[in-house]
Design a protein that fits this description.
The protein is of the alpha/beta class and 221 residues long. It has a single domain (3-219), classed as FMN-linked oxidoreductases (TIM Barrel). It has nine helices and twelve strands. It has helices at 18-25, 42-54, 68-81, 92-99, 124-137, 153-163, 177-185, 195-198, 208-219; strands at residues 3-7, 9-10, 13-14, 32-36, 58-63, 85-88, 105-107, 112-114, 119-121, 142-144, 168-170, 190-193. The strands form three sheets. An eight-stranded parallel β-sheet has the order 7-6-5-4-1-12-11-10. Strands 2-3 form a two-stranded antiparallel sheet. The longest helix has 14 residues, at 68-81. The chain is globular. The N and C termini lie close together (10 Å).
């Protein structure tokens, strides 16, 4: 079954009231809860990570900072926080040694990542080859910014699935049930949603809890 990772983020930044929102949604049935490496100080992220753990849920940290120095700092923070999944980031050769002897699952970006919020660029062939490279280096999976790509999204996803044997997380700009249905039909391992919940794009005028429950219901059909 395709998994839904709810992100306590907006426009690639962890929301200021992430701790309060987590308390509101932790009993909705969601299993995976994520946040970004920017937006809150480390001490608050530690508290959030602890809350996720105490609720029996799975924590996901996505690295969206651009420079090598910031990527490395964020990976080290993920190790310090003891998160379950580290996704995003592009400096795979620098990151993997830092994750050695941990239980963290690592799903880096592939392709050419630009801007913030992060966008995916590069030819399909370039992305596919980069996915192969990441798999050979030893990543557990791939964080694919499919809906932030300026090309054929379905070709992109299918091509990466054919290129590698590791699972895909589809992250960024998933904002409709049509997209969710497509990702389920493509049998991706997981997708993330953050901003669309806070913008109430999935269920008009519904609160955070009902937005999340509606997505969970859709993936269980």
């Amino acid at each position: 079954m395709t998994e839904f990772i709810f992100f306590l983020t907006y426009s690639d930044v962890t929301i200021y009231n992430a701790l309060d929102v987590f308390d509101e949604i932790k009993d909705t049935g969601i299993k995976y809860v994520g946040f970004k490496d920017v937006g809150l100080p480390k001490e608050k992220l530690k508290t959030l990570r602890k809350k996720i753990d105490e609720a029996g849920l799975i924590s996901v940290l996505e690295v969206v900072t651009a420079t090598e120095e910031d990527n490395v700092r964020s990976v080290k923070m993920g190790v310090e926080l003891g998160i379950d999944y580290l996704i995003g980031g592009t400096y795979v050769e620098k990151s993997l040694p830092l994750l050695k002897n941990t239980d963290i699952n690592y799903f880096p970006y592939v392709g050419r990542i630009v801007g913030h919020p992060c966008l995916l660029r590069g030819s399909l062939d370039y992305v596919f080859k980069d996915a192969e490279r990441v798999e050979k280096l030893g990543a557990n999976g791939i964080d694919l910014l499919a809906y932030r790509y300026d090309g054929d999204v379905e070709k992109l996803i299918k091509g990466v699935q054919e290129a590698v044997d590791i699972p895909l997380i589809i992250a960024g700009s998933v904002s409709s049930f049509e997209q969710v249905e497509k990702l389920i039909n493509l049998d991706v391992w997981a997708f993330t949603i953050g901003s669309a919940v806070f913008d109430k794009k999935l269920v008009p005028n519904a609160g955070y809890r009902d937005q999340i429950k509606a997505v969970l219901k859709a993936i269980k059909k």
